[in-house]
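Project standup — Tuesday

K.O.: blocked on the structure for the chain from last sprint. Re-posting the sequence here as requested.
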Amino acid sequence: MGLLETVKKSLLIPISETYADDELNNHISACKNLLVSTGITSNVVENHPLAHSLVVIYCKTFFGFKADGSVKDLPKSFDMLLNQLALSSGDYHVSE
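H.V.: unblocked you, prediction finished:
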């Protein structure tokens, strides 16, 4: 299953529905870019289950942004998992 499908399932959006695909793909790309900008390699971002969990958290936070202009903050769990991934991603090739 691809990352888009995983995100859709986490948001309880049927896989066959495509109305949110553009927005979700934008959030997925934004999160991947954020992870890479923190020093996590592209290989880890694409393949590590923890990176996929971070993408799901990111998408669940920002999907369906309200029109009132309110800003949503990422949950503290995102930062904790991001730090864990950044610290352990150097050893990722060992577990492959």
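K.O.: great, moving the ticket to review. The CA atoms of residues 24 and 59 lie 7 Å apart. The radius of gyration is 14 Å.
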